[in-house]
Design brief:
By secondary structure, this protein is mostly beta strands. The protein is globular, with a radius of gyration of 17 Å. The chain has two helices and eleven strands; from the N terminus they run βββββαββββββα. The chain has a single domain (about 15-164), classed as OB fold (Dihydrolipoamide Acetyltransferase, E2P), CATH 2.40.50.180. The chain has helices at about 70, 145-164, and strands at about 15-20, 25-30, 35-40, 50-60, 60-65, 85-95, 95-105, 110, 115-120, 130-135, 140-145. It is about 15% helix and about 45% strand. β1 and β2 (about 25-30) form a beta hairpin. A five-stranded mixed β-sheet has the order 3-6-7-5-4.
Length: about 160
Amino acid sequence: MYQKIADASAPKELSTLLIPVKGSHLILPNVTIAEIISRVQVAGVDDVPNWFVGFIQWRKREVPIVLFEAINDQPFAAAQNQQKHIAIVNGGNAKTPFWGLLTEATPRSIRLTKDQIIASKAVIAGPAELQRVSANETAAIIPDLNYIEDKIVALMAELKAQTG
């Protein structure tokens, strides 16, 4: 059994973003997201997994873009022109300092207390999910950023090997 440890320095609220994806929302701490940008032209790449949309130029960097539903092994619409924004994620890996997620609408910021985020009994639907939760009465998914980044790093290495 786990015992709760009180930490007087812990914040009372956490600033988060609800990022709309097909049929749900991803929830991430604000500090995880570098920027939300309007959808821009994505440079596609041939012979890649369906979850990899391509690259965009952002702040003089080539940033890989993924579709969460596909990387999570969920059904998705092939037409990606419905996505309105790209959430630029601060990567946790030196090989992918930034990467992007396509969103279905404008993400919204919410502040949550520990009592406003509750683990859901809903079954995790795919490998890119850590937990399903209710965040201030909104169903949301905590994505497995390590899983997503590992997939991106592996694909980038594969693409680099192909181009020599």
